[in-house]
């Protein structure tokens, strides 16, 4: 929800006091979250008339949707769960997320204190407190369709689904079965129906072993193109604006893969308003695929450790302005740099100008045309 008081609190109250996370509660019975919004209801993400703090005011009738990349509450970022006030978990850039009518990012971790680690190199987990921290930091929707959502096996998945069922924020891209995993979160923003879907295109153990099925819990997979495209087409019957948040790409590569460009075109044809994603630990090009906005990679955001990939500490928030007709009519980018504490600090002055120019330069190999600009 975008309220002036919330945005003001984020602006005035952001401090960094380290603390510790909590232990996950016992598992509860999972309940579906995607598609739960009903006409006339006031779900999370419904807009108010509060002006944006990080961009020029948006005329009535238009809506703004903000996107950020991968988040961990692990390693050096685990203490962010204990900062006061709670909206400070993501640092000052949280105000950019809170200023948008709707904001989405990826939580790349299991939510569990149990389970055996899967046969893979890296394992990430956190507590349900992470979902409250993201909500308090101005995030409206969390994707968990990624290659680390089931790092701790069936027990970890059970706990993650329990956390989803009792979450204070919509969690998409994972579920007790395929119907729930592919289900959109649907809400009304500025009188416009908006649906958000998430899926993973990463070819890995998680997508092979823990892909959601008819009676099988797991993540939504973009490798099952027909399932994802059908989800988008169905969402389009419910909402004028359909956003697809994907985990995709190749680590360290600043140009999209053939798999990325292929699915982006198909999603555009299926009616997606915007296709946004992350995974590569570096930013990729953004722009228009016909009438569909595509961001091929938003990079690391709240990041647990260092990375050897070039420019992996460069990140930021992309904010789209969407017309009442469901068309992307503006794009702005708030650049940030991941510091030694793992927190994305907004950049200003020449550093911000250079970051925006660098992002523009990544568009060439992405095959996209420039999006309309909101901020010059």
TrEMBL record:
EC number(s) from the headed UniProt entry: 3.1.-.-
Record key words, sorted: Hydrolase, Signal
InterPro entries, alphabetized: Capsule_synth_CapA, CW_Biosynth-Accessory, Metallo-depent_PP-like
The UniProt record lists the keyword Transmembrane helix: no
Enzyme class: hydrolase
SUPFAM superfamilies according to UniProt: Metallo-dependent phosphatases
Record's keyword annotation contains Iron: no
Family: Belongs to the CapA family.
Record-given protein name: CapA family protein
